[in-house]
Specification:
This protein is an all-alpha fold. It contains 13 helices and no strands.
Length: about 250
């Protein structure tokens, strides 16, 4: 039979058959005197096996390894690895569905945050703060940056920052102090960097910075995230934040 007939019988494309020839997954028959390849039953059997293996989720390199092992041991190993991988995918899918159902519940109650889906930890933290905290323009900027870190930071960096920052901002006294800092920084919205109020705002902010927060790393040259963050501030606000971070890195506000 010709390649098109083989393709129809096994349920693959002729392009796939040619690709399998190139990869060595399927023996290529010799050409007849008229230049056409003539496929036989053995080719159909081998091609059907390739199809079954790929439908199980094996990649073509794995299929080649399986076909090269006459004893079948390689197939058992590959299938075991595939089963373990599928188990991990199922667990991840289950976790995603749990988060999705929680977000749908929040949406039904009209409480889905404007900045979109967040990790459960950060969503709970924002909920504890309450909407009144984010009446401040500076607080809104902080919220946006926390949401960015929640999404984009490497897992270990995100976990370290959240485990340090979030507990430190919990409680009525620390929330009241944070509101005071936000008010001081909001008052600098149109001020130059040498405004005399900068030092006081910096001291108040430094007093709120958790001692374990890696402020020294953030002040390192070339920190793109920090510079992008501060570029959205007025000169006085940016200077107050930089000064507060230096104070915190040196052991606290004087």
């Amino acid at each position: 039979m010709r390649i098109g007939e083989l393709a129809r019988i096994v349920g693959v494309t002729t392009r796939a058959i040619r690709h399998y020839h190139q990869l060595g997954l399927l023996p290529e028959p010799e050409r007849l005197s008229n230049g056409y390849r003539e496929y036989g039953l053995r080719h159909a059997v081998e091609l059907a096996r390739v199809r079954r293996l790929t439908e199980l989720g094996l990649g073509l390199p794995e299929v080649r390894d399986v076909l090269a092992d006459d004893a079948g041991r390689e197939l058992v190993e590959v299938l075991a690895e595939l089963d373990a991988d599928l188990a991990r995918q199922e667990a991840a899918l289950h976790e995603r569905r749990v988060r999705l159902r929680a977000l749908l519940g929040e949406a039904e109650r009209g409480r889905l945050p404007a900045d979109g889906p967040l990790s459960p930890e950060l969503a709970e933290f924002f909920g504890e703060l309450g909407d009144e905290m984010f009446d401040s323009p500076m607080a809104v900027k902080d919220r946006e940056v926390l949401a960015l870190i929640d999404t984009a930071a490497p897992p270990e960096d995100r976990e370290r920052l959240m485990s340090t920052l979030l507990p430190a901002l919990a409680g009525p006294e620390t929330l009241a102090a944070a509101r005071e800092v936000y008010a001081l920084l909001d008052a600098l919205a149109d001020a130059p960097a040498d405004d005399p109020r900068v030092a006081g705002a910096a001291r108040a902010l430094a007093a709120c910075v958790p001692p374990d927060l890696p402020t020294g790393e953030a002040l390192a040259d070339g920190n793109t995230l920090l510079e992008t963050f501060l570029a959205d501030f007025s000169p006085a606000q940016a200077e107050a934040v930089r000064l507060a971070m230096r104070m915190a890195a040196e052991g606290g506000a004087p």
